[in-house]
Write a structure and sequence with these properties.
Helix content: 25-40%
CATH superfamily: Ubiquitin Conjugating Enzyme
CATH topology: Ubiquitin Conjugating Enzyme
Largest sheet: 4 strands, antiparallel
Number of helices: 4
């Protein structure tokens, strides 16, 4: 007889169901500026997403590609999310790694693809300069927005469909 509670250790099927539900939820929400989809029909754990920069920020009208890798025990463990597009931002390093608390120590199973994408989008316009991965970007964000934008545009690459 199993004494383990159902749902405590997620099986692959529940992860698949969760991600399929999140995909539908994201598509139905019609949230402007964010999108994410599984890369293939055969692997629901690897997604590609796009984030449009928020209005009134240096990222306005720019679109960035990200990768989302979901662990087999999602949502109990955070997905690994990286910027695929070259990025210039205080909380994103040159390899695309992201410093965002909800993807690390503040992760919770209540978060989903939509909340992650919205958090990343707002991070673009509201960096956490107290814990930068890119110290030069953090300094310029506070002191020289023209130079910040110049360096951003120097790194920016449009996404090809």
């Amino acid at each position: 007889m199993h004494s383990q509670k159902k749902g405590v250790v997620p099986d692959g099927h529940s992860v698949t169901n969760r991600l399929q539900n999140e995909l539908v939820q994201l598509m139905m929400s019609g949230t402007p500026g964010i999108s994410a989809f599984p890369e293939s029909d055969t692997n629901i754990l690897k997604w590609t997403g796009t984030i449009e920069g928020p209005q009134g920020t240096p990222y306005e009208s720019l679109v960035f590609k990200i990768s989302l890798d979901f662990p087999s025990n999602y949502p109990y463990t955070a997905p690994t999310i990286m910027f695929v597009s070259p990025m210039w931002h205080p909380n994103i390093d040159m390899k695309g790694n992201i410093c965002l608390d909800i993807l690390k120590e503040k992760w919770s199973a209540i978060y989903n693809v939509q909340t992650i994408m919205l958090s990343l989008q707002s991070l673009l316009g509201e960096p956490n300069n107290s814990s930068p991965l890119n110290a030069q970007a953090a300094q310029l964000w506070d002191t020289d927005m023209d130079e910040y934008k110049r360096l951003l545009m120097q790194r920016y690459e449009e996404i090809e469909d």
